[in-house]
Amino acid sequence: MSEKFQYAIETEALGRSFQTYKKPEGLINSVKGLWNRETIEKVALQKTNLKIEPGKIIGLVGSNGAGKTTLLKLLSGLIAPTTGYAKVLGYEPFQRDPQFLRRISLLLGQKNQLWWDITPLDSYALLAKIYDLDEIKAAKRVQELAQILNCKHVLETQLRRLSLGERMKMEIIGSLLHEPDVLFLDEPTIGLDIVAQETIRHFLSAYVKNKGPTVILTSHYMDDIASLADRLLLISKGSLVYDGTVQGFVANAELIQTVTYKIVNQPEYKEEVKKADLNEFLVQLTQKGQIENIKIEETDFEDVIHSFLQKESRLL
Amino acid sequence: MSFTAFYKRNLGFYKLAIASNLEYRMNFFMDALLQPSITSIVEMVLWMAIFKGAQATTIGGFDQNSYLAYALWATFIARATVNWTYEFKMIEEIDQGSINGLLVRPMSYYEYYLSQLLGYKSITTGFSLLFPIGIILATGLPTQWDRFPAAMLLVFYYLFFVYSISFCIASLAFFFNKVQSLTVSKNLAMWLVTGELFPLDLMPDYLRKIFLMLPFSSGVYVPIGFLTGRIGWEFLWHGFASVTVGIIFFSALGAFLWQKGMRSYAGTGA
Amino acid sequence: MLAPVLKKYGSIFAAIAKASFIAEIEFRLNFVMKIINDIFWYAAQIFTFEVLFRHTNLIGDWNLQQTRVFLGVLFIVDAFYMTFIQENLDRFSEKVRKGELDLLLTKPVNSQFMITFARISVSCVGNLIIAVSWFVWSLSQLPDFNWMKGLWIILLVPTGFAVMYGIRFSIAAMAVVFVRVDSMQYVWYQLYRLGMRPDSIYMPWLKFILLTIIPVGLIASVPARAVLNPPELWVFAWSLIAGPLFVAFSAWFWKQCLLRYQSSSS
Known about the structure:
Chain A is α/β, with parallel strands linked by helices. Chain A is 36% helix and 28% strand. Chain A has a six-stranded mixed β-sheet, with helices on both faces. Chain A has a three-stranded antiparallel β-sheet with strand order 2-1-4. In chain A, strands 11-10-12 form a three-stranded antiparallel β-sheet, covered by helices on one side. In chain A, 35% of the residues are buried. By secondary structure, chain B is an all-alpha fold. Chain B has helices spanning 3-23, 25-54, 64-80, 85-96, 99-103, 109-128, 130-139, 148-171, 180-193, 205-213, 221-227, 233-264, and strands at residues 58-59, 62-63. In chain B, a hairpin with a 2-residue loop joins strand 1 and strand 2 (62-63). The longest helix of chain B is centred in the last third of the chain and has 32 residues, at 233-264. The radius of gyration of chain B is 20 Å and the shape is globular. In chain C, helix 3 (64-90) packs antiparallel against helix 7, helix 3 (64-90) packs antiparallel against helix 11 and helix 8 (151-173) runs antiparallel to helix 9. Chain A binds chain B through residues 18, 69-70, 73, 76-80, 96, 98-99, 101-102, 104-106, 108, 111-113, 115-118, 122, 125-126, 129-132, 158, 186, and chain B through 1-2, 5, 8-9, 11-13, 16, 19-20, 23, 98, 100-101, 103-107, 262-263, 265-267, 270.
């Protein structure tokens, strides 16, 4: 039975660093490298504090190498923390208690977890055994989920014969089969076409509203985050730099708005104006002449994130 | 966790291995039948040449037919107890990080691959043994059929020993890259000590005593020597005992390496 | 006309050798293990015959000292195979499956050359040293050995190697047509096993096949016989022809396979 916690996920000073070594250049140094290697310590995640309530969808965003995948792996029990601790559903993930594992699910967008050489139905039957589910209920669930995702017709085709989009749908069904309380989604829509992405987004949104799992979602597609996430976590160089709502982020970030205007007897101009300066700009504009047409575009969430990430990588 | 749940999912893994391997029929046929058949024929030809050159009717107390039977069985049984495919798979999964998909599930990595190995070996060995059985029945080469179940039981038990070593080597993939080369090494070394190349009792006394003490001799020499009448029951019991010691030793080592490996695991590749 | 071509492929070869060495030495364990693995393999062959000869004086046509020489030849050819060919051709079917062949076919170099010499296993040079040492030692153990006979090796080992390459490459080339054929590798290994024993142990009809149609006997048995027995000039002449013949066949076969190649989609 799933117990009610105040927080589904809680971390305190959770951090992880790795040891790597310097790869020397050239032939002679390569030979020296046989017995002599210089190690460097790299901090993948700085000490992080988090409190996440059950039933929420958390969007985890950051550039590659920022630490978001490390956070995901720490929370799902794949790797051990080097500092601090995490508690997910009251368990310490790294202990990998089977009861804990039964209640979580990990979906990796770029990897297949279902078995390659057999049909999805056979994979689900095997998963039902692994998670100790009632076989009949599990089979029914498969049909329900496949119905919503519109992929019933490929359930009996071997996984290796399916297209990327179909495989992803199968993986989603596989990850939801045991009705997890916590769902870790790592790039679930990567490589899919627009239609498939939208289908999956709608599906996830409806599923969470219906069943209420806690979801941690990482994605490079801002549409995923913007349309699904209740809360946004932004990670940069291993530190959490923003923890709040998507709207809050958009509002606080330095926004550039695009103003397209046409003054009588003059060609159309397009200018970028900082939100803070918008009022003054408009005042100046009205003094230039009679405005025939004006359009002010709100900055896209995607652009905000991109400019944020660009700034961050320039500093790296 | 109940026993039925444990049993159900491991039976699932066992069947998974059978289904996955039968999927590639050509490979299965080559692996199970063609390869060992050709090898055993070459080995039998070698023994015929040895006897011709020796110009004697017995070598080490046994006649040519006894050696032909030994060479025939040895090839097939050696294949039954060597772990290439699944050891490589285990190493690759740890190397590539695909193990992530398995670690988040409520099952142990150890049982996942053990059950698959048993499934794979059951189907391949079951099928391939038809060849030596057929030849022996047709030619009447020395084989004591009443000893067959006991010999096969030792072979099956030995497979657990082989797996416990595989698990240790796979765990090393947490620390080193390209651990597959260790697999090759280990399998080559085992080739020498199991008695696949020749019956171990042909060796000089001092070597023979050492080889027979080790659990590796139960891979080929003990069960096949027993089956073809070279050695008796006391060797079989000793085989079971030494393999048990081997399983305990390597399982403990494997558990230790795995724990250490998981601690240092970086999870890359997911 | 020939010089610039040789120069081009020579410099590609040198670049591959250097890159291979740097890449290989990166994986320290692997580097060391490869050498150890071959030592185990040599040990298995040697050990088997040493034990068997305790119970007989003659296997096939040869005694222990002569069989040791045979093994020496086998080891030398094997060392060359392991250094230049083995890894590249064993990995070939995987490369085809991953679609990497397409990248190669669009480059202005001979594709067979690039596939064959994609990587050089520099660590196997150690094996070559061991193999040659064993060979020389085993020759020195022969009573009244004429060292001039050793010159036959210089002629016959390369041609034997060429035959080995021709057969091996042709088998690997089939991966282009039958994509799921890892098992073909096993066919090769079985053929090689036949050549791993002195051909005098085989029945006459089999021995004939192993010298002509599937001439794995040319790999080790024939060069060893050149050193140990009186010369059989017909067989040697055939070996000198067979080498280039099998390589040419493999080139032709490769082109045929490419005609039927359907590059795999992602």
